[in-house]
Amino acid sequence: MLRRLAPPEMQPADFAFSAENAEWAKKEIAKYPPGRQASAVISLLWRGQEQEGWVTHPMIESIAGMLSMPFIRVLEVATFYTMFNLVPVGTHLVQVCTTSPCWLAGSDAVVEACKKHIHPHPHTVSADGKFSWMEVECLGACVNAPMLQIGKDFYEDLDGPVTEKLLEDLRAGRPIKPGPQNARHSSEPAGGATTLTEASLYDGSMIGRQNRIGNTDAEGKAPTQAASDREAPAQKPPGAAT
Ligand code: FES
Predict the structure, then answer these.
(1) What pTM was estimated for this model as a whole?
(2) pLDDT tens, residue by residue, 57-81
(3) Are 135 and 99 in contact (CB under 8 A)?
(4) 55 C-alpha to center of ligand 1: Å?
(5) 158: which of 98, 147, 196, 213 is 20 to 30 A away, CA to CA?
(6) Among 48-57, 171-180, 211-220, whose mean pLDDT is lowest?
(7) Span from the CA of 154 to the centroid of ligand 1 (angstroms)
(8) Helix 57-66 crosses helix 71-80 at what angle (to 10 degrees)?
(9) Distance in angstroms (rounded) separating the CA atoms of residues 195 and 193
(10) In the chain, what are the domain boundaries?
């Protein structure tokens, strides 16, 4: 996908880090030795995006000035990494994974739900300003496909109606629960766990069990013959034939 800055008419007139972020940026830049301040470029862009929601032209100019870098070098970084938003985003940025495992598990329905409840087109802020959505590559939660990310949380095991409800709840300010949206607790088989199912593994009743069957903790931790001694060649008695 071609990644370009938003057109000039969308760009704000200027950019400045908040007082708190400016203080943070100073410390971040100071982590690097003289002449290596450019190494802070990603962290400054990220903090700028956290502040504004997206990376703007004036933000890139400002960061280039802070790091004594040419504008084009900062622009290259911002346009290379897809984690940087180059157009305005809604309060909630919905990132829908559409890579093969999620697609095979039904991400088309998740995309349709976003089109219906947010906007027919990705990278476009909804009329109420609360949402925008985009397609992304694998987010590493394929075992709970299909899934999407909102803010820093994953929402997994989705389908069309579940995604619609998720978005409706979020829009209405109702709490939503990250993680699997079906009966799964994490990434166990969809029909329920098939291994490590013994309740005592999790209820604390196993604690200290080793001691009760005779092998105390102290015995377990007692030093044994060092491996280097065990594996050393046997010493021959003096005068023995070689
Ligand atoms: S393919 Fe969607 S999380 Fe990996």
Answers:
(1) 0.77
(2) 999 999 999 999 999 999 999 999 9
(3) no
(4) 26
(5) 196
(6) 211-220
(7) 11
(8) 120
(9) 6
(10) 8-80, 92-180
Q: Is the CB of 99 under 6 A from ligand 1?
A: yes
User: Does residue 16 contact residue 61 with C-beta atoms inside 8 Å?
Assistant: no
The finding on whether 106 has its CB within 6 A of some atom of ligand 1 is: no
Compute, in angstroms, the gap from residue 111 CA to the centroid of ligand 1: 14
How crowded is residue 131: how many other Cβ atoms within 10 Å of its Cβ?
Answer: 23
Q: Which residue out of 142, 144, 154, 187 has the highest number of ligand 1 atoms within 8 Å of its CB and is therefore the one to mutate?
A: 142
Q: How many whole angstroms from 166 Cα to the centroid of ligand 1? A: 19
Distances in Å between the alpha carbon of 73 and those of 8, 59, 76, 78, 227? Answer: 19, 13, 5, 9, 55
